[in-house]
Amino acid sequence: MDGRRSDTRERIRSVAMELFSERGYEKTSLREIAERLGVTKAALYYHFRTKEDIVASLSEDLRGGIDEIVRWAEATPAGPDRAREIVIRYGALLHSLGKDMIRFWHENQPAFRDLGFGTSLRYQFRVLADLMAAPSQDPMAIFYARQALLAISWSLSMMGDLELPDEESNAASVAIALDILARM
Question: DNA-binding region spans which residues (predicted)?
């Protein structure tokens, strides 16, 4: 039963991201999400009471994934190998969340800010970059670390219109990020 409930939640989140991307977050209603899914609003309410709850669940996945990378990095000696692995893990995390989620995140910054998710995500992003730059906390090293992470984020949010397989675009974005990281 839990597996089926989990599958339904994933379908809801996926359809919501499609609609948010097509119509915008503010212009999408729970009724429209339910209609696209072919379920009643009551069935949708069983899983998510509001659009904000859907976005919160997606944000929790992203924050939880970044927290996992941070825990791993804090238990690993600082240096170039750790920085490279952070980039690889960050790329895998964003890739697993999907283009629609990342594009929504970038295109709907006001919604994330209004819902209070943006601040914690920016903080986590900075923590990752600081861990990549360690042991040096040279501002230019941190700059390159942030640029490497941004290369991955932006590739998902800005390159979705290109006809590239997800694996190929992820591999390319990680390679570009690693090239930037090599400048540290």
Answer: 29-48
